[in-house]
Amino acid sequence: MNRSRRHILFFVSAAVFFGLMTWAMHDLPPVGHYRGPYGDAINATVVYERHITDAVTAVNFDYRGFDTLGEESILFLSVIGVGTLLRQQKRERKSREDTDELEKGQAPEPSEAMKVITLGLVGPLVVYGIYIITHGQLTPGGGFQGGVVLATAPLLVYLAGDLKTFKRITTHTLVEIGEAIGIFGFLMIGFLGIIAGKEFLRNVLPLGQTGSIFSGGTVALLDIATGLAVAGGFISAIYAFLEQTIEMRMEGEE
Amino acid sequence: MLILQIAILAFVAITGTAVVLTRDPRNQVIGLGFYGLVLALMFFLYEAPDVALSQIVIGAVALPLMFMLSLSKIRRNEQKRDEVKQKQREKAA
What we know:
The complex is a heterodimer.
Chain A: H1 3-25, H2 37-50, H3 55-63, H4 65-85, E1 92-94, H5 96-104, H6 112-134, H7 143-151, H8 153-159, H9 163-170, H10 173-195, H11 218-246, E2 248-250
Antiparallel strand pairs in A: 1-2
Chain B: H1 2-21, H2 25-45, H3 49-92
Helix pairs in contact in B: 1-2, 2-3
């Protein structure tokens, strides 16, 4: 197929697509004028019912907590999948020298300014991640967002060129333990509801004072569990990718 | 606010098109990271800060990183293959 024919095909299908999109979106309510009843109902009752000021977190971890458990398991399974696909295969071997070569300056050595900035950012980033996780019920954010923020901390160490420390952090058993505790903790907190004689994932803990960090009952705990699971999962996935790129060699290479 | 919202929508369209039209994969990945940040700003301006927070980390860090790493792996494999072919040709000659 030559170039001009491809262009004709593109413009015709783009025009059709644009027409269909306009038709489909024509009946949408204007921005900010949501028509369904649920959003308004939750906005009106969430502070009274759950002592939570961030309605999104209340929906994610309480009103539809079961869905979130599913989402968390999806992430867990994807990380297992990535780890399985990128594992050391029979024809591959790890090259130790390559890791040292990177240290010695085979790869471009990061500048002093880069090192100072990235290493200096690690501390604030970890604090910020913990803040986002623990304030999920009060302000935007929560376990998922905070967990990913935490998982980017080792990347800063990698950017600073400190491959040894990066490996020590990312292969630490605590990463895997954190991920497992996160998933298991979510389930256990869910079972609290059944133990109390209600449904799975029912918010049975005392709700606390609105606006305090201990408010929201099980939501605060679920936030922390999700944060652990997400941080652990992302760190494992990032390490699997980096390991494949930096260390793994096919047999016969170099 | 409305002007900002229209402006950010236009910006999303422009950066999205730019990412598609970039030919070199490496530049494309960097463009993709920038596009992720613009998307996060759009979510924020449409009053969805929760989504914006996730988008910042996933769209601007995690996604480009995985593309970058895969690209570098592919590139090394290709280099290796070229070297092997070169050697075979020398042997034949």
